[in-house]
Structures are given as structure tokens and as C-alpha cells.
Amino acid sequence: MPRIKEKLGDRSLGVAKDLGKRLGKKTSGHRAAAQPPWTLYYNPHCGTCLKVKERLESRGVQPKIVEYMKDPLSVKTLERILKKMGLGPAAITRFKEPFWMEKALDPDRLGRKEWLEMLAEHPFLIQRPIVETKERAVVARPPEETDSLFSEQ
What's the pLDDT score for residue 13? Predict the structure, then answer.
């Protein structure tokens, strides 16, 4: 479309609409409102993750799937998720993991930056599943936790 606009100026929208009509497509002068992006931070071996994926799909949401064990989350991504939750790193940490207990880590002594770096380096410590939308994020345990996200639409 940029090339059309370059050649036709302000008439480009009318040309695009006309082309759409000739191709049998409904067009309007306005773009359709896009569904807010949904991201599911997911482990395919987790039963709860599978239930959440099915729950979202049954409500018409096709989330972007991030297998965070294969593609670990960055500190920046973790910060964004926590900001949307309005919580600290403890909200997404799996404290029952043997690694956590073997290291005898004390949450009260871990700085936020150090904690997030640890989660980024050891993704198995991240609670799952996490569902993120444009405005909010939740740990979807139980899967019904996702219901509150639908009020955004």
C-alpha cells in the first residue's frame, strides 16, 4: 500500500477500497480493531498449560505460544510481565523446585535484579502457565484465573 499511496496520494484509499470490492472483499475506510495480543508462556508437558490453552481457544483466543523452557524469557520480559501483574518476582517463582531448596535461597535476601536474572537463567523456576494480554498478566493456576482477562476486550 505505501507504493500505491506514493503514486496516488490521497486517492490511494479509494483505489484500495475499489480493488477490495473487485476481489470480493469487504473493505471500509477504517481498519478493523485488532484483538489484543495474547501470549501464553507454556510448557507442553504441563497439564495445566494444556488446559489453559484449550480454555483460551474455546473462547476464540489464538494466543502466541512461547515455550519458555526452549526459549527462555529475558529479564526485560519478566519485568514487563510482573509490571502488568503489579507483583514481585515471588509471584512467578516455583519455590518447591529442588534447585531452590538445594541452594537454600532466601527470598528476603535476593535483590529484584538478581532474582530476575536467576529466573531468566533457570526457566524451570518460573511458575506456569502465565497468560499475558496488552494490559495484564496472570499466573493461570487454576485455569479459571484467565476469566478476568476477558473483561479487557
Answer: 44
